[in-house]
User: Fold CBS domain-containing protein from Fermentimonas caenicola.
Amino acid sequence: MSTKEFIKKQVENFSKPLTPEQFSELSEAENSLIILEMPIKDYTLTEIARIVESNNAHVISLSTLPISGGSELLVSLKLDISDLTTILRSFERFNYNVTYFFMKEGEVTDKQKERLDELMYYLDM
Assistant:
């Protein structure tokens, strides 16, 4: 399975509607997805969980996929937080390569939309 196929599968699993059976297995709090790419020798679940939990979030689901002949690893994290900005900054600070992320509308995107609306109103004057 290639990197693109893995990401596509994770996004499809994340975004498709849940059946009643799946709903009972998963938490409603699952709001965001992060996919990290790293050398397999650098993979430490405890450090990843510490980074996430130090930003007041929790890992709801985690899956991994070895790539590049087993030397690289894709790590998919589903989290219970809707605004990933602080977590993404933390991963950047600790030199993690974030390949993909998805978040439901959070405070940042709402604020950006509000500012864009204000700018458009100003330009229409």
Confidence is low (pLDDT under 50) at residues 23-28.
